[in-house]
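We give its fold:
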Amino acid sequence: MATQDTVKKVKELLEGHCYAPLKEAAEKWIDEVGKFMDENEDKAVNVAEKVGDFAGNVGEKAEAATAKLLESELVEKLKEGIATADEMIEHFSTEEAKKQFGEMADKIKKHGEELKAKGEKFCDCDACKKAKDILKDLGEKLD
């Protein structure tokens, strides 16, 4: 389940460069999870004070279910957004990538080849590393 540390990491991911569907899912997640936490934290405390531990337990279960539902789209986009070394090599070998990125396309392709040669499966750019870290926080694993 998301923690304040996870929220911070998602915000950091948004500060950098990431592909559009991931950015949209992350923004939605931040908006909804942040709003949910802000709106329900005080309510849960007030209700728990009036009704006792039962209300606190119900509030925790509702929060967990809601957070899990909101995480599903973010998790999907995080997993989609993390490039493998093979994907790096394939994409940055294309004419489209060469036109878009110029000389950087060849450098990124070579970096993907180096990662693969070292036995690394995934891209190690800042965005991909941050996405992997967030997935780990959320209890998700990459294949």
Summary: The chain has seven helices and no strands. The chain has a mean pLDDT of 80.
